[in-house]
Automatic annotation (TrEMBL):
SMART domains documented for this protein: acidPPc (SM00014)
Chain segments annotated as transmembrane: 36-55, 62-81, 116-141, 153-175
Protein name (record): Phosphatidic acid phosphatase type 2/haloperoxidase domain-containing protein
Coarse class of the protein's main subcellular location: membrane
InterPro entries: PAP2/HPO, PAP2/HPO_sf
Subcellular location(s) per record: Cell membrane
SUPFAM superfamilies documented for this protein: Acid phosphatase/Vanadium-dependent haloperoxidase (SSF48317)
Classification via PANTHER family: DECAPRENYLPHOSPHORYL-5-PHOSPHORIBOSE PHOSPHATASE RV3807C-RELATED, SPHINGOSINE-1-PHOSPHATE PHOSPHOHYDROLASE
Annotated membrane topology: Multi-pass membrane protein
UniProt xrefs under Gene3D superfamilies: Phosphatidic acid phosphatase type 2/haloperoxidase
Domain Phosphatidic acid phosphatase type 2/haloperoxidase positions: 62-172
Keywords: Cell membrane, Hydrolase, Membrane, Transmembrane, Transmembrane helix
Length: 176
């Protein structure tokens, strides 16, 4: 890719990051995104998957096991990419970034929270497609929260979405 294209992409991504992180700031959104971001965290994603696997019935039980497997597998490429492409978190690069409590210090690329939420919701939506109307937007909210809270660039979240979705689809395909 030419350096002009890379520079253009970085410039537009930085602008989008600043828009989400600074321009749309509001007390309600601070509370909203601070709560919803945790759905992509380890505790919530593992607990949701375990509860479905242990207590779900029929296709939801299978979805729980698929989500657990996808969750575990999807974090292998995330860990590798974080080491191979050590991208600093936005708040470390852009001093005007608005952050909230306890900003992370590991590398930014790709978003583990976004990877996790998509790893968990895809098997559930496959099992009960109508839940997609609720769960897919919810997963995008988790990704958006990571940008809003100053922890990730948009491409971190896009790649996390792609990793989580792809690993889940492959897990579902091989499960059957």
């Amino acid at each position: 890719m030419s350096s002009k294209v890379v520079h253009w992409l970085q410039d537009h991504e930085t602008r989008l990051f600043h828009f989400v992180n600074q321009r749309i700031q509001h007390h309600f959104l601070d509370q909203f995104f601070t709560k919803f971001t945790h759905l992509g965290g380890a505790t919530a994603s593992i607990m949701i998957s375990l509860c479905l696997a242990c207590f779900g019935q029929g296709s939801l039980r299978i979805a729980g096991f698929q989500a657990l497997l996808a969750l575990a597998i999807s974090h292998i490429p995330v860990a590798i990419m974080k080491k191979r492409y050590p991208r600093l978190r936005p708040y470390l690069v852009h001093p005007q970034t608005i952050t909230h409590k306890n900003p992370l210090t590991d590398h930014s690329f790709p978003s583990g929270h976004t990877t996790a939420i998509f790893s968990v919701i895809v098997p559930i939506v496959y099992a009960l497609p109508m839940l997609g109307l609720l769960l897919i937007p919810l997963a995008f909210v988790v990704g958006m929260s990571r940008i809003y809270l100053g922890l990730h660039y948009p491409s971190d979240c896009i790649v996390g979405c792609l990793i989580g979705t792809t690993i889940s689809v492959v897990t579902i395909a091989f499960w059957g």
